[in-house]
Amino acid sequence: MKNGILMIVMLLGLFVSCSNTKGTEAKPVAYIQTNAQCGECKERIEEALNYSKGVVYSNMDLETKIVEVKYNTNKTSLAEVKTIISNLGYDADDVTANKKAQAALPACCQPGGHD
After folding, report:
1. What are the start-end ranges of the H helices in the chain?
2. What is the CATH number of the domain that holds 68?
3. Which positions carry the signal peptide feature in this UniProt record (predicted)?
């Protein structure tokens, strides 16, 4: 009797855990090379991405200038993520910075501003 109840509980647990994964969206991680210069750039990029629809998480490594972005493919795309970065005034892999936005960045955030 105890074994039968234990088996039913285990099967029920397995059923519940399998049904919870149904409908989950893919959340790939992208690594995007930027030309960001400083902590202010890092903050600007992360804030814009983290408040964007579909972005789950972003973090920029100042040393490598690479932004790690985890996003929901049902709500945004990698191209849209790169466009967000470009519209802030930074290069994003093969997407060049929006020149008008780049010109509006503080002097320290301009390309070559920390050379």
Report:
1. 2-20, 39-50, 78-87, 99-104
2. 3.30.70.100
3. 1-21
Name the residue with tokens 């973090």: 59
Establish if 77 belongs to a structural domain.
yes
Domain containing 53: what range? 29-103
Q: For residue 22, how many other CB atoms are within 10 A of its CB?
A: 6
Residue 9 lies in a domain: no
> Beta partners for 33?
66
pLDDT value for 9: 47
Instruction: Report if residue 61 sits inside a domain.
Output: yes
Structure tokens at 1: 């009797």
State residue 114's pLDDT score. 58
